[in-house]
Amino acid sequence: MELRIDLDYNQILVLIHQLPKKEIERLTNTLQSEIASKKSSDVLQELILSAPTWSDSDFDDFNKVRTHINKSRIA
Questions:
Q1: Contact call for residues 32 and 40 (beta carbons, < 8 A)
Q2: How many other CB atoms are there within 10 angstroms of residue 24's CB atom?
Q3: Residue 39 sits in which domain range?
Q4: pTM score > 0.70 for this model?
């Protein structure tokens, strides 16, 4: 079941001001935690997208060195 109501910003504010103080505090905490969560995931996504990447030749070089290291270890 889905219910959609078209409310503008001022109507939402009026409804919020009708809430008891405890419910307003609860709403505030919920919104702040959701905003903080969104910001941290945005920062992480930005970090991942801007991170340096390896070219195919870099990755091949890494694999060759890794293979050499694995072969040279004393078992």
A1: no
A2: 13
A3: 9-72
A4: no
